[in-house]
Structure formats: structure tokens, C-alpha cells
Specification:
It is a single chain. With about 575 residues, the chain is mainly beta. The protein folds into 2 domains: about 65-375, Tachylectin-2, Chain A, CATH 2.115.10; about 385-580, Exo-inulinase, domain 1 (Jelly Rolls), CATH 2.60.120. The protein contains 4 helices and 38 strands. The strands form 7 sheets. Strands 27, 29, 30, 31, 32, 33 and 37 form a 7-stranded mixed β-sheet that branches. The protein starts with 9 loop residues before the first helix and ends in a 6-residue tail after the last strand.
Length: about 575
């Protein structure tokens, strides 16, 4: 993914922001305004405002960031590259920034690793992935933009000095580009190469995201030497009416345990594969689970795994352009994702001096049912936990709410387990909602409309008198054949700020849990000043929200637990911690 608003060209993005700037500034004169927009891309932050800046999420000291690129573990060091504007706080001037860590929590920021400088990336060095070759040499594949029309090719870069533990310098060899689109490919929709995997025939394979006539495509390329690549006759997978597939990710998952698998894992039994794509039509992350036919080089989603906007999402909120990698140190797969700002106007980013964060890295594995992925914050995050409070067996009747005190409510980690004695109070699921997205149902019902079994959950980043709050909650419905569990993160009352352009959605997803045998639901929320990352039912449903309170800031933020359903809810356990700040050198 390369563009903030996902236009098909850089000019499309400029027009969008240019129009916003005209509205904002009331400037007359088209050419003067366009020049000012171009200046915005290179308006370096004079100061950085900390009001909504996160405390324990990854972000550089200032300026714009977007896609995480080429995460990898190499010789004892974790590497994260990411799209970055070194000159300003809006999209533009993009380079590959580079940071390193020993634990994925504390980071050292280095000089950019890749920046546009040659004819094969003169107009842009866009997203890509890393692969560790058998001789323990890392290589990066990335998308280069070669002209002002956004024509795209695939390039590679290699470390200048393998003895440098941080791999500070990278070389772009002159035999780039490695892959140029043929006439069958839309050259402006040809980007974001995956980590490569090796087949049993000794050939390397990668996938590149693309689109043909609104058909999303995972184009497949093969190579014996990682230099000369040939396009397969058919894509690894494609699906009609899904639009452009950005930032594809393809990896194996174990059916036996939660351990991760290397992309080149060749075991045939007890393994499935995941194909993830970022859809620029609505800016969500979708994935399917299925079987990889290695003989035909085809990926076939399971019958219950659907491509496109009706399918499974990695995250039902503000989370995009994700990239995963295999961590051999702890035998796990980790996924990174970008969460952009929701205050929308370029002027907001310029005033803050920064824009964009990376979500907390998550361990990802296959649910025992084989039907979906589970995601959970990496265990290293727990090293930042400070003051702790604990509650047990507290009942909440209809309309009750209590405040969680003793921690910093603006920067916290909360885990809570809810239980209830009966499903009899569950509301009927309106058949008219069957064709709606979960977030539409959340917008209809919300957290304040009394229900039967729910709504119950957390009111995060709340002001003392609840003028502002972001509720994260469950609501249980009785459908024709089963129970439907709605999980919401509703930002509509998150701020008193009056800004029509501000994006304050009621994000939501359904949680696949059988409540008949075990009448329990768990929730974990990571609260960090302007972001709330929530994990329902042990990570089955994940929702990330960006919010900008005006009252619930720092020490004036509060945290509440509430129940607005007629069924009494029991808080079996609640553990909450204040969160420390990692080192970001």
C-alpha cells in the first residue's frame, strides 16, 4: 500500500488533499494552492505535540509513516522497515526508514535503508518484503515507481556489510529491475512483493498484488537464482469484484499447535495456508484459509472461507497494509500493521508534527477449529506493565457502571473475563441485518441502548462525566439457528472536538464463540492516548480504533466497566496495568 487515501495515482492523492486544503484555507488561485500542497509534503515539524502521541506503540520521533515493510529476524536482531516521509507529516518524499530491536519493544532508529535514487525507483520506493536466503543472506524485494504515471516494477536490495549487526547500509544493484510487468498486467496495479518461499522443485516463488477488470489477483512468479523471474501462466489465486489487492501475504499455519512456520515449510500434513490482501476499495485487511496445491501452484480457499468484503478480517478497525514474518528465535509468526490518523485533514498532521503509528506486533496462529486466525499481542509487551489492580467476582446489574481506579487510564493494558448465568435475555437478531456489516449493526444499537444480554464492556479514554468515551463492548443476539456475538469499538462519542472531517466510526465484528456450553466472554484492550486496540475472546476478533479526546487526556482520562443489558453480568476477573514507555532511541 502506498497512498493515504488509496487513489490509483499520486495525482489522485494530490487532488484529494489539494481540495481539502482549499476548503481549509480559503485560498484562491489553483496554482498557488497546488504549490502550497507540494510544500506541505516537505514541511518539517518545528515542534512535536504530545497530546495524542502514543506512549508504547512504535512511531518515529516525528513526521509521517505508513506501511510496515520487510520485518525480519536476522542474527539476533529484529528489523522493521517502514514507509516514511523524512521531510513532513503528510504523505510524500517516501523512503524506507529502518529501526532495529532486540525485543520488538525497545527500538533504535537508523538512517533510511532505501530511498528513490535510480531510474528503476526514481518516482517511488514502495512496499516490499524480506527473505533470508539459504546462505543466511537477507534480501529485500520492493516496488519501484519508474515514471510520473505510477508505472511499477519490482527491485531488490542487499546489505552492504553483513558483518554490521544492524545492517545499516543497503545496496540497490544496477541489474534492477528484476521484474517488469508484461502487457497483460496493469502496470499501475503491480506492487508489494511477498516474502519468497522455495518449492520442492528448488524454485523460489513470490506473489505480487494486482488487479484486472476489478478482479483482485495474486500474481505468481518463479526463479531459480532469485535474479531471473518468470511469471506463472496463472495467478496463485484471484477473485472477481474484489478490486486491487495490495500488500499480499502468503504463509503456512500449523494445524497442531500455535507455533509459527517458515514460508518455505514443506510439510504436507497438518498444515494450511493463509492468503491475506489489503483491499483499497474499503481499506480493510481480508484473509482466507485454505489449501496450497504445490503441484499446480494454486491456492484454494476452504469452502467456508470467502474472498472479499464479506470475508474474514485481520482487524475490523483502523489496521492496514500488514506484513508478517517468521521469528525463528521464538518459533512464532508475527504480524505488523499500520494504523493511520483519523483526524483526516493534512493541517492536523502538520500541527501535530507526526502522523501514523504501527499497531502492537501480534503473534498469529490458526484457531483449533481451522476456520480462522487468532492474534494476540506479543508476550514482550508485558515487560512494560507497571502498577496493577485486580478485581474478582464483581456483579453488574442493568445500568450499572464502576470506575477502574489505581492505574493510568490513558496508557493501560486491561484484561477482563465476563460471565453470565443465562442466554434467555439475548435480543432477537433482526433478519434485516443479515446483509449488513457488523459495524452497521453496531451503529444501529450502540452501547447506550438497553439490551438483553449486553451491551457490556469497557468505556475507555473517558472523561469524568462521560462527555467523551470510546466504548468497547459485546452484545449477544439470538439468531434463527444460533447466537451472534457482536463486538464493537465505537468512536462516535470519543471526542468533543467539532470537526466534520474527523473519522469516528463504530467499528465492529462478530465473534465466533459457542456460548451454550460456556457462558463467558473475554476482552483485552490496549489503551494508548489516541489508540485502543482490542482483542475479543482470546484474539478471535480484533478491533483497532484511533480517537482524539479533548477532555480525557493523560491524567484526566478515566476507565469504566459497564452493563446496559437486563441480564446481570459477572466480572470473574479483571486485571489492569499502567503501561511504561519503551526506549525509542
Amino acid at each position: 500500500m502506498e497512498l493515504f487515501m488509496k487513489s490509483s495515482s499520486l495525482w489522485g492523492l494530490e487532488i484529494y488533499l489539494f481540495c481539502l486544503f482549499i476548503v481549509l484555507s480559503n485560498i484562491n488561485g489553483v496554482f498557488a494552492s497546488h504549490n502550497i500542497f507540494l510544500d506541505l509534503q516537505s514541511s518539517s515539524a518545528i515542534s512535536v505535540k504530545n497530546v495524542h502521541r502514543t506512549g508504547f506503540h512504535f512511531q518515529p520521533p516525528k513526521h509521517w509513516i505508513n506501511d510496515p515493510n520487510a520485518p525480519m529476524y536476522y542474527n539476533g536482531v529484529y528489523h522493521l522497515f517502514y514507509q516514511y516521509n523524512p521531510k513532513g507529516s503528510v504523505w510524500g518524499n517516501i523512503v524506507w526508514a529502518h529501526s532495529v530491536s532486540k525485543d520488538l519493544i525497545n527500538w533504535i532508529h537508523l538512517e533510511p535503508a532505501i530511498y528513490p535514487s535510480k531510474k528503476f525507483d526514481k518516482y517511488g520506493a514502495w512496499s516490499g518484503s524480506a527473505t533470508i536466503l539459504p546462505n543466511n543472506k537477507p534480501v529485500i524485494l520492493y516496488t519501484g515507481v519508474v515514471d510520473s504515471h505510477d508505472s511499477q516494477v519490482q527491485n531488490y536490495a542487499i546489505p552492504a556489510n553483513l558483518s554490521d549487526p544492524f545492517l545499516r547500509k543497503w545496496i540497490k544493484p544496477n541489474n534492477n529491475p528484476l521484474i517488469v510487468p508484461d502487457n497483460s498486467i496493469n502496470k499501475t496495479k503491480f506492487r508489494d512483493p511477498t516474502t519468497a518461499w522455495m518449492g520442492q522443485d528448488g524454485l523460489w516463488r513470490i506473489v505480487i498484488g494486482s488487479m484486472r477488470k476489478h478482479r483482485g489477483m495474486a500474481l505468481l512468479y518463479r526463479s531459480r537464482d532469485f535474479i531471473k523471474w518468470a511469471k506463472a501462466q496463472h495467478p496463485l489465486h484471484s477473485s472477481p469484484h474484489t478490486g486491487n489487492w495490495e500488500c499480499p501475504d502468503f504463509f503456512p499455519v500449523s494445524l497442531k499447535n500455535t507455533n509459527g512456520l517458515d514460508a518455505s515449510y514443506r510439510g504436507k500434513k497438518k498444515v494450511k495456508h493463509v492468503l491475506k490482501n489489503s483491499l483499497d476499495v474499503n481499506r480493510f485487511e481480508y484473509y482466507t484459509i485454505g489449501m496450497y496445491d504445490t503441484k499446480k501452484d494454486r491456492y484454494i480457499p476452504d469452502n467456508n472461507s470467502i474472498d472479499g468484503s464479506k470475508g474474514l478480517r485481520l482487524d475490523y478497525g483502523n489496521f492496514y497494509a500488514s506484513k508478517s514474518f517468521y521469528d525463528p528465535m521464538k518459533n512464532r509468526r508475527i504480524v505488523w500493521g499500520w494504523t493511520n490518523e483519523s483526524d483526516v485533514l493534512p493541517d492536523d498532521e502538520i500541527k501535530k508534527g507526526w502522523a501514523g503509528i504501527q499497531a502492537i506486533p501480534r503473534k498469529v496462529w490458526l484457531d483449533p477449529s481451522g476456520k480462522q486466525l487468532i492474534q494476540w499481542p506479543i508476550e514482550e509487551l508485558e515487560t512494560l506493565r507497571k502498577q496493577k489492580i485486580q478485581l474478582n467476582n464483581k456483579k453488574l446489574s442493568k445500568g450499572e457502571m464502576f470506575e477502574v481506579k489505581g492505574i493510568s487510564a490513558s496508557q493501560a493494558d486491561i484484561e477482563v473475563s465476563f460471565s453470565f448465568s443465562s442466554l434467555n435475555e439475548a435480543e432477537q437478531f433482526d433478519p434485516k441485518w443479515a446483509d449488513l456489516y457488523a459495524q452497521d449493526v453496531c451503529a444501529i444499537k450502540g452501547s447506550t441502548i438497553q439490551g438483553g444480554l449486553g451491551p457490556f464492556g469497557l468505556a475507555t479514554l473517558a472523561s469524568k462525566n462521560l462527555e467523551e468515551y470510546t466504548p468497547v463492548f459485546f452484545r449477544v443476539f439470538k439468531a434463527q439457528k444460533n447466537y451472534k456475538i457482536l463486538m464493537c469499538s465505537d468512536a462516535r462519542r470519543s471526542t468533543m472536538r467539532q470537526n466534520e472531517a474527523m473519522y469516528k466510526p463504530s467499528f465492529a465484528g462478530y465473534v465466533d464463540v459457542d456460548l451454550v456450553d460456556m457462558k463467558k466472554l473475554s476482552l483485552r484492550s490496549l489503551i494508548d492516548n489516541s489508540v485502543v486496540e482490542s482483542f475479543g475472546a482470546g484474539g478471535k476478533t480484533c478491533i483497532t480504533s484511533r480517537v482524539y479526546p479533548t477532555l480525557a487526556i493523560h491524567n484526566n482520562a478515566h476507565l469504566f466497566v459497564f452493563n446496559n443489558g437486563s441480564e446481570t453480568i459477572t466480572i470473574e476477573t479483571l486485571n489492569a496495568w499502567s503501561m511504561d514507555v519503551p526506549k525509542m532511541h
